[in-house]
Amino acid sequence: MSELIQAVDSPAEIAQAAARLREVALKKDLPSRTVMEMFERWSAALQGNGMESLPGAAFLRLWLRQGTLEPILERELGRDALNGGWREDGRARLRAFPLGTVGHWPAGNIEIQPVLSLTCALLGGNSCLVRVPSVLVDVTRRLLERLRAVDSGGILTERIALLSFDHSREDLQTAMAQNVDGAMIWGGAEAVLQVRALPFPHWTRVAVFGPRLSVAAMDAAVWSEPVERSSWCQRIARDVWQFDQQACSSPQVLFLERGKAGDVGQFVEELKRAFQTENRAHPRGEISPALTSSICLARATWLLENVSNKAWFSQSPDWTILLGEGADIPKPTQGRTLSVLVVDDLLLAISKFDGAVQTLGLAIGDAQKEDALAQTAGRRGVDRIVKLGRMHVFGSPWDGVDLIRPMVRVVRHVPSQN
Amino acid sequence: MSGLAEIEERIRPLLTDEPFKLDVAKHESTLLALLKDELSYACERSLRFRNYVERWPTDYRASRRVADLPFLPVGIFKINPPLCLVGRSEITRTLASSATTGQVPSRVVLDAATSKRMTRGVMTIIRDFIGSARRPYLVVDTPATLAGSGELGARGAAIQGLRSFATEVVCCLSSDAAGNLKLEAEKLLDCAAKWKDAEVLIYGFTYVIWNHLVKPLQSRGITLRLPNARILHSGGWKRLQQEAVTKEAFTQGVAAAFGCSNDRVIDFYGMVENVGVVYPDCAQGNKHVPSFADVIVRDQLTLEPVAAGQRGLVQVCSVLPTSFPGFLVLTEDIAEVIHSDGCPCGRRGTAFRFVSRVPKAEVRGCGNVETVRGRPVANGRPDE
């Protein structure tokens, strides 16, 4: 960790880093409670010094809090695991042990993802070999500098090796895969498929968090209610703005249940005001020309395809609301472009989901109706069903998979004297 | 609202006067008034287009700058059926962009009036660069590209656009059954011997000239002695960039092949969605906009026009089309504004240089769902 992020150019450098990490992981136990205590300090250190402007830093502070992580650890590994002890299981006893060295291949679109990924493996007592995407090198360095400042004894930092190399270097990708006991792979389809195809040892456990999209839905009782409408629109805007709508948990479409009482036009005007407010609070600093082109094309395609479609958008590519009808999810544009589709029955839209939807953000007035929607969504491949405004709250399970348990081995000991 | 006849009357002088002499303020006001009327005309002719224009954040009728008028992104011209402002019976030709295999080409429909304006537009611009005299016209392509009727590709459209400068037309390539192009070297040498010191107009797509004329001539050690040739080329640099051929190397290679000076090799920028307007390089290496068109370079973050010295997305503007809504088109090209006025070559108005195509969309991570199970999503863009 002396260089924090090491630019590597040869497989030998990776093998060397992995060997050092494995030695540390084998030599010393790292109880989850120790990790959590260090994370708590890291969380505090992420305040001030301009860290607020760093995308996702506020969220990461919350994630690293003991109050967030302890219930997750308890649920995934059991209460005794917090202190690294055994727990009784009939005549046997069980204890979680780390896999060893976990390789991380985070996606390049979420600034805090390399850190989020490695925290999951550290909680299991593992060492971490992380390939940091080139676009995230600076932000990852800033985050890890704060950890190094609070971890003077190197309890965690000695278990982390952050590597930077071009994603097309097959030899380096291969070297990394050959030297890990576990792998956490995040990102788009192409990236995930490429990493999965690497020659991992046969014992390597692989957790994949592949490309997904997310959807929001509101029933008529909620969006027609003038008093609460404004706050719901603010929640939607926050979910759209965070991560510039590029995360798997970002809503790309909002299904609105048709209602007799409400005026959809009024709702969209409210939503437009919420988008404008969010845009003023969190203006974009930069955008790729390709995304600008995509946003302009999405606006034009929507309005030219069907004369009954409507749209509201800024002169700049800052935000876009596309209003129409239908139960099918349109092709996502990202870049703060939300399709709002009016549908007679939310169940109809949800029953068309095909496994691509990760998160369903809901605002439903009737608990029974919400239960029916959740049941259907679960059957149709949705992994997270949450309240609108909390679609990005990173928690376990994520993508239907535990975050810590896949990177530990649960050892069963049946005492010989029984 | 102005009728089409009145619009036609107002476009006519722009196509007959010198194209690069209009005062900048007069240029802006003339274009703004005409484009507003053309937008109104298009809204009356197309409900789809009206739906788009009416949803634009500002009312175009109150706009004070061309830059504030509603533009279409170039990708919308891939829509099927193509955007059209005339009845089917009035369509005389459909132009299609060059697109690589598997990609969807842009298509624009032309009626007789628009076709005529397009031809006049190209003539007016090219005349300013090479003079108005007719001369032998060597097409670095196959005769098939001249036989255009119905649907015409980008190469065919460019070749046809220069025909009015020709006393005779000769194509120097042929193609085999598989479509592979081959240089008709003997035919070419015969023409060169016949034309000698005459003014000759030569046109071809950039990569076609390089791969199918310059390279074969170089390999045989042949130089054509045509010192008064004018070689115009267009179609983009992507394929030659892949072969590491720079613009300078191309110009030198072509000039050497024809035995003329480098300044007789002229690159021009154009696209079917902006047909009738081409942007040849001036002696300073800059591209200019004629009085019947404009170019706005927009900042990708704000979509506001950038100042001289800055780069951004190119928007092309043209008053020529009335058969399709190609008045204001945001391209997927990046250019740099060199001057807002005052190029040493003497041409007035905006001078710009093409920089590159918009880089392919970056990997957009875990939310980048390009395919939904069993339902692939198209994501094509043209090569050039």
What does this structure look like?
The complex is a heterodimer of chains A (418) and B (384). With 418 residues, chain A is of the alpha/beta class. Chain A has two domains: 221 residues, Aldehyde Dehydrogenase, Chain A, domain 1; 175 residues, Aldehyde Dehydrogenase, Chain A, domain 2 (3-Layer(aba) Sandwich), CATH 3.40.309.10. Chain A contains 14 helices and 16 strands. In chain A, α2 packs antiparallel against α4 and α10 crosses α11. Chain A is globular, with a radius of gyration of 23 Å. The mean pLDDT of chain A is 93. In chain B, α1 runs antiparallel to α2, α2 packs across α3 and α7 crosses α9. Chain B is globular. The two termini of chain B are 37 Å apart. The interface between A and B is large, with 60 and 45 residues.
Protein traits:
heterodimer; A: 418 residues; alpha/beta; Aldehyde Dehydrogenase, Chain A, domain 1; Aldehyde Dehydrogenase, Chain A, domain 2; 2 domains; six-stranded parallel β-sheet; 14 helices; 39% helix; globular; B: 384 residues; Rossmann fold; six-stranded mixed β-sheet; 9 helices; 29% helix
* Dominant shape of chain B: globular
Whole-Å distance between the termini of chain A? 46 Å
How many helical stretches of chain B?
Answer: 9
Rounded to the nearest angstrom, the radius of gyration of chain B is: 21 Å
Task: Give the SSE layout.
The complex is a heterodimer of chains A (418) and B (384).
Chain A: E1 5-7, H1 11-27, H2 32-45, H3 57-63, H4 66-77, E2 87-89, E3 92-98, E4 101-105, H5 113-123, E5 127-131, H6 137-150, E6 160-164, H7 170-178, E7 182-186, H8 189-196, E8 205-209, E9 213-218, H9 220-223, H10 226-241, E10 251-257, H11 264-281, H12 289-305, E11 310-313, E12 320-325, E13 337-343, H13 346-350, E14 357-363, H14 367-379, E15 384-387, E16 408-413
Parallel strand pairs in A: 1-6, 4-5, 4-7, 5-6, 7-8, 9-10, 9-14, 10-13, 12-13, 14-15
Antiparallel strand pairs in A: 2-3, 3-16, 11-12
Chain B: H1 4-16, H2 24-45, H3 47-54, E1 72-73, E2 91-96, E3 107-111, H4 112-130, E4 135-139, E5 150-153, H5 154-161, E6 166-171, E7 173-175, E8 181-183, H6 185-195, E9 200-205, H7 206-220, E10 229-234, H8 238-242, H9 247-258, E11 265-269, E12 279-280, E13 287-288, E14 293-298, E15 311-318, E16 328-339, E17 351-357, E18 371-372, E19 375-376
Parallel strand pairs in B: 1-16, 2-5, 4-6, 4-9, 9-10, 10-11
Antiparallel strand pairs in B: 2-3, 7-8, 11-12, 13-17, 14-15, 15-16, 16-17, 18-19
